[in-house]
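FAQ

Q: What does a record look like?
A: Structure on top, sequence underneath. For example:
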């Protein structure tokens, strides 16, 4: 007589290790994400107490107090800023641009980039300011 052994196999997947890994990854991303959002240190000028509704998806061009130009967070010369903005407009014809000029930035530096953008056909160029909290 042959004896058959019956094996009981557990074919189900154990989720505990996967849940532990996902919880650890979530904690790591929650801690590191605020550290990765470093921007350019710009002191925006104050302009009134009411906010204008603007386009949150506009491309940010910043001018710091030393007159350096930044497209998003990358420092570059003014001509490169304009060239890259033109390239971005190729992907989105309705591209809006927001200029963030430091309070102590040279007025001419802010107007220079605005003028160059208008010369190449950008119609939606705005200035970003800070709301007075009074």
């Amino acid at each position: 007589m042959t004896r058959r052994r019956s094996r009981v196999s557990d074919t189900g997947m154990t989720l505990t290790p996967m849940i532990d890994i996902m919880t650890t990854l979530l904690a790591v991303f929650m801690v590191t994400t605020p550290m990765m959002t470093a921007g350019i240190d710009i002191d925006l000028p104050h302009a009134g107490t009411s906010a204008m509704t603007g386009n949150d998806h506009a491309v940010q061009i910043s001018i710091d107090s030393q007159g350096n130009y930044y497209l998003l967070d990358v420092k570059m010369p003014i001509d490169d800023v304009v060239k890259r903005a033109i390239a971005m407009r190729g992907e989105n014809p309705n591209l809006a641009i927001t200029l963030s000029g430091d309070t102590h930035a040279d007025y001419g530096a802010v107007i220079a980039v605005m003028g160059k953008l208008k010369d190449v056909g950008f119609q939606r160029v705005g200035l970003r300011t800070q709301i007075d909290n009074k």
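Q: Is there anything notable about this one?
A: The longest strand covers residues 59-63.
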